Amino acid sequence: MDRLRLATVWLGGCSGCHMSFLDTDEFLLEQADVAEVVYSPLVDAKEYPEGVDVVLVEGAVCNVEHLAMIQRVRERTRLVVAFGDCAVTGNVTALRNPLGGALPVLERAYLRASDPPGAIPEASDTVPELLDRVVPVHAIVPVDAFLPGCPPSGPTIRAALERMIAGEPVDLPGHRIHFGGYGQPPSPDGAEAMPSRAFRGGRPRGD
């Protein structure tokens, strides 16, 4: 069987979900025969490739760069997983939304709240233009599965990946969905995902 082509993407988030991804420890190395990480902030890959089977997307969509990236990811990936609370709901990254659009946010940060007052960055070639609102991933593209948590725990991520790699559906009742940090004990089997697409033979299968 061909190896599962796995990717991770980092949009508007703190990287905590990727740090938790690393908490799966040796598990990632143990899966080398059945899965390969083809794109991630953790590997040396500059361009998101074609033919990705599963991607874990951390972070909300906050700027034009994120917008272009998530659209490219959706076009090239069979199964998109919203990975962590920022990707699922917007979470902390969306706290700027009540302040208004992008310009009021920039004015508050760089002019009114700065001492001494600074200047709004306008180097569009180095600083991506902010969107007027921060939105979760599913507000832009269809999402196939949700893996909440701030961040999801290492055991939770491992349990979900084990099922994906084995070609099994990651399908758990709603009471096991856990948002926020590590305050609650994990469910008995460690997984807290809520999918809308099943896996068969290491490949996602449409409903």
From TrEMBL:
Keyword Nucleotide-binding on entry: no
Taxonomy, superkingdom: Bacteria
Residues annotated as signal peptide: none
Gene3D superfamilies documented for this protein: NADH:ubiquinone oxidoreductase-like, 20kDa subunit
Name of a matching Pfam family: Oxidored_q6
Annotated segments matching region Disordered: 177-207
Keywords in alphabetical order: Oxidoreductase
A GO term for molecular function: iron-sulfur cluster binding
Protein name as it appears in the record: Oxidoreductase
